[in-house]
Design goal:
Mean pLDDT: 79
Largest sheet: 2 strands, parallel
Radius of gyration: 29 Å
Number of strands: 2
Strand order of the largest sheet: 1-2
Strand content: under 5%
Number of helices: 17
Length: 410
């Protein structure tokens, strides 16, 4: 249905523009684009352009300029600085900038007024001592891990605003008026950013984090299948397929991106199925468990490439057991990913099922005489252990997020 809508909209644009089709060439490319990330980049770029146009009207239209004054340039600067890709990031950065400007401007004005009433050496002494105390304190507080992730930008703006107002306020007679005007223009820029970012095709970090986390389950299932397929289909001297290996590396390198998405998602308002105080920390815990599983699969890959592995004929004797294992674990990972994607509890997969798989597989590992295959077996057992951790992590997330019970077909 969505593809049909895109086709109809593209045809309508081509028909209504006639000879001037190149004018909307970028829009047609966006409609035909199947990559979500590319489409989001186009949307973000267009929204930034719209925001800059709206805020520049306060400077270009004479009645607005006479009303706001030259300080309206601060609204444009605010747009350029705080307009981010995700709506939550823009909202968080804007709130940080507003609070930092308000506190820094207010405290700087008080210091400037106090210093202006002093004479002689006391005037610069008050300014210097206040810069030392408040600047060092704010910087120290910003370095705390809990503060740095969400409020580091606000502390930076506080230090900048406080320093500017405190130092310049000594030479200026209207420091409070200037600070008030600049704060008002920053508020205007922030309001326009929030309007365009939330009202025009908002890009939610929460949706991207949820989508990327669910995709990792399928990636790990494909990686495990590709790893074992390469072991039984090729000799040790032949190169393994690289497609699943690149997919595996993308899971291993996703930690920093997940942390950034979770931080941005915490600032977002209620959207879709994601409400206030949604347990985004559980997504990070789940991502850590997925990374651990990816690391174990990578270790399995290296073990399978060892020159101590038996010839292909000996491996064929264990192929049936390994195939059953691969199908069971891959099925478990896919079921977990689909349940998380639909935000439903998955009753097909539980810890008892994995315990049964371990009881069936473990005796075969211990009874095998070949040390190389036994090493592979122990890694596969470790994969089962980490899969069980994933099952518990998904169950925990489902309870905290209020996932609905999945209805099974009888």
């Amino acid at each position: 249905m969505l593809d049909n809508f895109h086709h109809q909209l593209s045809t309508f644009i081509m028909a209504t523009n006639g000879e001037n089709q190149s004018t909307h060439h970028w829009l047609i490319l966006w409609i035909k684009c199947d990559d979500i990330e590319n489409r989001q980049r186009v949307i973000h770029s267009v929204k930034l352009g719209i925001t800059l146009v709206l805020v520049s009207l306060f400077y270009l239209i004479d009645p607005m300029f006479h009303q706001m004054g030259e300080n309206v340039i601060w609204a444009i600067m605010t747009v350029v600085v705080i307009f981010e890709f995700y709506a939550g990031a823009t909202l968080g950065k804007g709130i940080n900038r507003g609070i930092g400007t308000l506190l820094g401007g207010g405290l700087g004005s008080l210091i400037a007024i106090l210093a202006a009433k002093m004479n002689g050496v006391f005037k610069p002494l008050i300014i210097v001592s206040s810069l030392l105390v408040f600047g060092a304190t704010a910087k120290y507080a910003a370095q705390a891990p809990a503060m740095r992730r969400r409020y580091e930008y606000g502390f930076r703006i506080f230090i900048l605003t406080f320093s500017m107002v405190a130092v310049l306020g000594v030479r200026s007679q209207s420091v409070i008026a200037v600070a008030r005007d600049r704060l008002a223009n920053i508020g205007i820029g922030f309001a326009i950013c929030i309007f365009t970012n939330l009202a025009i095709f908002p890009i939610w970090a929460s949706h991207d984090l949820h989508r990327s986390t669910t995709a990792k389950f399928h990636k790990l299932a494909d990686s495990l299948q590709g790893c074992l397929d390469d072991y039984f289909k090729t000799g040790v001297e032949n190169p393994v397929h690289e497609s699943w290996y690149e997919t595996l590396k993308s899971v291993l390198q996703s930690r920093s991106k997940d942390e950034s998405l979770a931080n941005d998602a915490k600032w977002e308002p209620w959207n879709g199925k994601f409400g206030f105080y949604y347990p985004w920390e559980c997504y990070l815990e789940l991502g850590d468990s997925l990374t651990d599983l990816a690391a174990t699969i990578l270790a399995l890959k290296l073990c399978l490439q060892s020159p101590l592995q038996p010839p292909l004929e000996k491996r064929e004797e264990m192929k049936g057991v390994f195939d059953n294992y691969m199908l069971s674990v891959s099925w478990t990972l896919i079921q977990l990913g689909e349940a998380l994607e639909k935000m439903e509890t998955c009753q097909k997969v539980n810890s008892k099922l994995l315990q049964t798989m371990k009881l069936q597989f473990f005796p075969l590992v211990l009874s095998h005489e070949n040390d190389a295959i036994a090493s592979i077996g122990f890694l596969l057992m470790d994969i089962l252990e980490k899969t069980e951790v994933l099952v518990n992590a998904v169950e925990k997330l489902g309870k905290l997020a209020g996932f609905q019970t999945k209805k099974e077909n009888v």
